[in-house]
């Protein structure tokens, strides 16, 4: 009995969001992932249009349907017996919704729209139904007239302080908002705006577990910008590039995550680089680049740790494959496990 329970505990669900295309991908793919071997077995397929980002809280999963044809939306599912059962779907107020989070208590969701400058706020009821509660519409631009002609909201992450940190690639700003329950509805309340380097294009962020630092990934410059909490505000501490020495190609930095112990930070870069970089986090929160690893494919849009952090799974969008790296917890370094998951345009991986 102990043996069978032990084996069962090694198998955990993995959800992969894709860009859908007829005869290629239907939507969300649920796998059983073996935390000991790194093997993955397909359990089910869920039809939903271009679920480019996923968020999960207990048995509720949300998907941002990244469309631009008027059907852009956020979809809610209930996880039951290895399958996703549809609950409801609502439109977003912007276009190309590319990111969704669920707050730590599972009470609300925030959806970022890459087009239209819109940020959407949905309440989640006890049954997993989503209801639109509030939205914000941003304006502005920055120095790159081609890519920063208007706001491009790329992500929203909940910080350890409970606030929502919104990265706007189009204006080089990170907006900090509180979410409050007022008269039975959740509302946005902007409390701070953080400037990032001009022309850098903030995309995603990661918070240090000690709550003193956060790391903002710049898509256009492939820099990681370190911010330190000083009093009640955040101050820029360091800017470090993620590329190998001598790299001169085009950048498209995509994702950034920090290990649970706060010792190592990882960041992916697409276009000509196709790498995932490892940084050692110093005691003062600053970064030291220690490895630039090929992702062994093209277009590493999203990556994630396995829950035990022994593996890093990289979704290579343009080579239609998830590459699974072994992770050395002591040194932070990544090495090829030899394991792969074949998937059409994999762009989000969550456990």
UniProtKB/TrEMBL annotation:
The keyword Transcription does not apply. Keywords: Carbohydrate metabolism, Glucose metabolism. Transmembrane segments: none annotated. SUPFAM superfamilies: Nitrous oxide reductase, N-terminal domain. PANTHER family: 6-PHOSPHOGLUCONOLACTONASE (PTHR30344:SF1), 6-PHOSPHOGLUCONOLACTONASE-RELATED (PTHR30344). Belongs to the cycloisomerase 2 family. This is Lactonase family protein. It comes from Sphingobacterium kyonggiense.
């Amino acid at each position: 009995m102990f043996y069978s329970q032990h084996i069962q505990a090694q198998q955990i669900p993995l959800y992969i969001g894709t860009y859908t295309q007829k005869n290629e991908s239907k939507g969300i793919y649920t796998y059983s992932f073996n935390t000991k071997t790194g093997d993955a077995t397909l359990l089910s397929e869920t039809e939903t249009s271009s679920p480019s980002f996923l968020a999960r809280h207990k048995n509720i999963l949300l998907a941002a349907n990244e469309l631009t044809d008027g059907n852009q939306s956020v979809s809610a599912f209930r996880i039951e017996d290895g399958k996703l059962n549809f609950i409801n779907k609502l439109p977003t107020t912007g276009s190309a919704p590319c990111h969704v989070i669920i707050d730590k208590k599972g009470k609300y969701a925030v959806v970022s729209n890459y087009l239209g400058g819109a940020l959407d706020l949905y309440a989640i009821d006890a049954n997993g139904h989503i209801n639109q509660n509030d939205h914000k519409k941003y304006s502005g631009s920055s120095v790159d007239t081609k890519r920063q002609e208007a706001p491009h909201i790329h992500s929203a992450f909940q910080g350890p302080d409970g606030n929502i940190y919104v990265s706007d690639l189009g204006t080089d700003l990170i907006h900090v908002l509180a979410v409050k329950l007022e008269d039975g509805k959740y509302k946005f309340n902007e409390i701070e705006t953080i400037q990032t380097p001009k022309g850098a294009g903030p995309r995603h962020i990661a918070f240090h577990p000690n709550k003193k630092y956060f790391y903002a990934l710049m898509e256009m410059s492939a820099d990681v910008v370190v911010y330190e909490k000083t009093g009640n505000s955040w101050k820029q501490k360091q800017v470090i590039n993620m590329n190998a020495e001598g790299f001169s190609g085009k950048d498209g930095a995509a994702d950034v995550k920090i290990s649970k112990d706060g010792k190592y930070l990882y960041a992916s870069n697409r276009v000509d680089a196709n790498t995932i970089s490892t940084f050692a986090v110093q005691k003062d929160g600053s970064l030291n680049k220690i490895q630039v690893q090929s992702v062994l494919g093209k277009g590493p849009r999203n990556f994630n740790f396995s829950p035990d952090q022994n593996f890093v799974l990289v979704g290579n969008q343009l080579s239609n494959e998830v590459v699974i790296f072994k992770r050395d917890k002591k040194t932070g370094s990544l090495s090829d496990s030899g394991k792969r998951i074949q998937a059409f345009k994999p762009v989000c991986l969550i456990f």
